[in-house]
Amino acid sequence: MSELRYIAIEGVIGAGKSSLAQLLADKLKASLILEEFEENPFLQKFYDDRKRYAFQTQMFFLINRYKQQQQLKQQDLFASITVSDYIFDKDKIFAYLNLSKEELKLYEAIFPLLERDIPKPDLVIFLQASIDRLIFNIKKRGRSFEKNLTRQYLVELSEAYNNFFFKYSNTPLLIVNTSDIDFVNNENDFNELYSHIFREDRGFIEYFNPKLRG
Predict the structure, then answer these.
(1) What residue segments make up the domains of the chain, in order of their start?
(2) pLDDT tens, 155-213?
(3) Which of 165, 183, 161 lies closest to 173, judged by CA?
(4) Set 26, 49, 76, 85: catalytic member
(5) Catalytic residue at 189?
(6) Residue 14 annotated as lining a ligand binding site
(7) From CA 168, how far away is CA 81, in angstroms rounded?
(8) Was 19 annotated as part of a binding site?
């Protein structure tokens, strides 16, 4: 466990990133960093009209994530454990999915300048889930600004995430299939996942596919 001082959790909207981050932070008595999506004034408009508001939404998230990561950089990651519900690199997933060619040119000129000195996690946990499970989770939490999220957008986003992490090699990676488990409400599911995260023999890239208990 001692080598994991900075853990970041990723996944499509509704996969359970923030919930798992909170659970891990509580158990580890760790510092918690949550993405400040509610502060983005363009997000609701983006879900209503992706094409029109993609660039404003993207740039707000990029700058906000950068500021948050700079605060993380100033912390002593060796003195305490930190858990985050996103990685800075994920910004590119949304950019390439949503921005026009002209907008991407500007984005690609800015992103590398910000990326250079961002701290890297000791482990990234990528939560995969079926589209039906994502929709169920999104409806269950009932955020007003997510009411216009379409199934098609979730399909596109899920494919983009899968492609991104298929090629990902920046840090150790644990890919978890969450479609048939409930680590939020089922303590056994959480404990099984927790044990796998801190396995001493965990490989650099590893898949965890727990099955639904009867």
Answers:
(1) 11-133+145-208
(2) 999 999 999 999 999 999 999 999 889 999 999 999 999 999 999 888 899 999 987 55
(3) 165
(4) 85
(5) no
(6) yes
(7) 23
(8) yes
